[in-house]
Design a protein that fits this description.
By secondary structure, this protein is mainly alpha-helical. The chain is built from five helices and two strands; from the N terminus they run H-H-H-E-H-E-H. It is rod-shaped and about 115 Å long. About 12% of the residues have low confidence.
Length: 144
């Protein structure tokens, strides 16, 4: 009578043992004997993760890729605040012209250093009442 029930009991015991072992595996690790080393290891792992994200990752949702559009907008807004400064006196306004700025074209800007009206789009600039500032204006204000 008992011998026919033995295989069922054995299966129940094995199932309970498996459940118990699974619950034991889910328990957290025992406290470390060297918590300072554990903290240093966690900090090292964290700084490596941050370094990878700041350096850039090839995925589209990386940190650098996510902030790039806002960075470009910010750079353009800063450039728009630049005053229209001309490094010559006001009396030479119609005679002298600034050459194109090669470094601005490398940054995706149009030739913003030029005096030519069709190239220099000063309508987007936010400066001192929209007027051009000449070298003699700067000298006068410095002497005041």
């Amino acid at each position: 009578m008992y011998s026919c029930r033995l295989p069922d009991i054995q299966r129940e015991i094995n199932a309970k043992l498996d459940d118990t072992m699974e619950q034991l595996r889910k328990l957290p690790a025992k406290p470390s004997d060297d918590p300072l080393s554990d903290i240093v290891a966690l900090l090292h792992e964290f700084t490596n993760d941050i370094k990878d994200h700041v350096k850039g990752v090839p995925e589209e949702d990386g940190l650098i890729q996510a902030i790039r559009p806002e960075q470009d907008k910010f750079r353009q807004r800063i450039r728009q605040t630049a005053p229209k400064f001309r490094p010559y006196e006001r009396k030479h306004a119609g005679e002298k012209h600034l050459p194109s700025s090669k470094f601005l074209s490398m940054e995706g800007e149009e030739d913003a250093g030029s005096d030519d009206e069709e190239v220099d789009d000063d309508s987007k600039r936010i400066d001192l009442n929209g007027e051009v500032i000449y070298a003699d204006d700067v000298q006068k204000s410095a002497l005041m």
